[in-house]
Amino acid sequence: MKHKTRRGGNPLGEYRRLQREIRALFDPFTARHCPGCATPCCVKPTRVTPVDVALALGAGHTFPHLADPDPYAPALNHAAHRLTLPVMNSDPEPVEWCEYLHNGRCTFPDDLRPYGCTTYVCGPMYEHLPDDTLHRLRRLIRQLEEAHIALLRSLKDAGRLPEQE
């Protein structure tokens, strides 16, 4: 069954609402488990896309902490690799953190986190979250996937995304 967009068909509003619901489940877990994680997911190559950056900028958000003044640069630099997550190994290589992290936190607005990051459920989450929370999280992620498609379609129809070739 398809999830219906709420609030009068506003795809961006629905996308942001679902992001807030997912954050409410993620935040307590990440506060407790991420600081000491042996396999952190907020590393390069990132899951951040130029569309994620455009949504944040379009909502009036800025990224003043970035060394490169172009907020799209990190997302574009990792575009070829963003669908993969690096495998952490036992080598003493330094971790290269996502450029959109600052002071240990994601710098995207909580309701416009990068789509690839928001839909990623890590192994420790599967280990530590109760089954009912995981079921709710998976349901919300499916709804977010549908809302993301509706949002991209809306942007394309409004001429704000290029046609696929």
Please provide a written account of the structure.
- Helix 1 runs antiparallel to helix 6.
- The N terminus is likely disordered.
- By secondary structure, the chain is mainly α.
- A two-stranded antiparallel ribbon has the order 1-2.
- The protein has six helices and two strands, in the order H-H-H-E-E-H-H-H.
- It has one domain.
- It starts with 10 loop residues before the first helix and ends in an 8-residue tail after the last helix.
Give the overall pLDDT as a whole number. Answer: 85
Write down the secondary-structure element order: HHHEEHHH
Q: What is the total number of structural domains?
A: 1
- Main sheet overview: 2 strands, antiparallel
**Inertia-based shape:** globular
Q: What separation lies between the terminal Cα atoms?
A: 30 Å
Side by side, the strands of the main sheet go 1-2
Fraction of residues in β-strands: under 5%
Structural class by secondary-structure content: mainly alpha
Report helical residue fraction: 40-55%
Protein topology:
Layout: H1 11-33, H2 50-58, H3 73-77, E1 101-102, E2 105-106, H4 115-118, H5 123-128, H6 131-157
Antiparallel strand pairs: 1-2
Helix pairs in contact: 1-6
Please give a quick description of this structure.
Helices cover 45% and strands 2% of the residues. The chain is built from six helices and two strands; from the N terminus they run H-H-H-E-E-H-H-H.
Keywords:
165 residues, mainly alpha, two-stranded antiparallel sheet, disordered N terminus
